[in-house]
Amino acid sequence: LVSSSLVDRLGRKKSCVLFSLTYSICCLAKLSRDYLVLAAGRVLGGLSTALLFSAFEAWYVHEHVERYDFPTEWIAVTFSRAAFWNNVIAVGAGGAADLFTEWLGLGPVAPFMVSIPLLVLSGVFAVKNWDENYGKKRAFSKTCGDGLKCLLSDRRVLLLGTIQALFESVVYIFIFLWTPVLDPHGAPLGIVFSSFMAASTLGSSLYRLAVSKSYRLQPV
């Protein structure tokens, strides 16, 4: 909620560049053995994650609809393909993480260090190639009030929000626990992560197939 207001006020392009900066610093913080530095790194990681899941999509939708006036039906197709290739790249990233950590023996922080040049590159690309766009600048209290009103006025929205919140809670509990559980057993965490992403890719592909014209299965 805070990040969405920040993105609208700061500008979506600037927010995407800010993501590349804050997450790069988050990765560098993992080199420290100081608890406060590590904690600050996690705060920056949380901010970066919020920007990742708000600024980029908001920038794209505005460009798609407002600047280029493309058909709105293409947005769902674009997000579907982006999700698929995001998972494919994540599979490769897991393999690369295992390469640097286990095969080359550079340690568990190595994948984060390797990611920094890519983060910087993405920020530079956005600066040089993207146009800026902004959302509606509204008071934070009004944004919260409108959101709460929308939740309470439509039972379907409330139900969907509740399901999404519970799902995200389970996902984040899993994210925090899977590495401590598997690490004592010597499991190759990079390969395990790649397996998770491959399963996600498969699920996304099966969903697209299920709702295609061939099968016509639709959500309830």
Characterise this structure.
The protein is built from nine helices and no strands. The protein has helices at 2-10, 12-29, 35-52, 55-67, 73-103, 110-129, 140-153, 155-182, 189-210. It is globular and about 50 Å long. The mean pLDDT is 90.
How far apart the termini lie comes to: 28 Å
Count of helical regions: 9
- Beta content: under 5%
Number of strands: 0
| Mean pLDDT metric | 90
Oligomeric composition of the shown chains: single chain
Q: Which regions contain 5 or more consecutive residues with pLDDT less than 50?
A: none
Instruction: List the secondary-structure elements in sequence, H or E.
Output: HHHHHHHHH
Principal-axis shape equals globular
Helix and strand layout, with pairings?
Layout: H1 2-10, H2 12-29, H3 35-52, H4 55-67, H5 73-103, H6 110-129, H7 140-153, H8 155-182, H9 189-210
Helix pairs in contact: 2-3, 2-4, 2-6, 5-9, 7-8
Quick summary of this structure?
The chain has 9 helices and no strands.
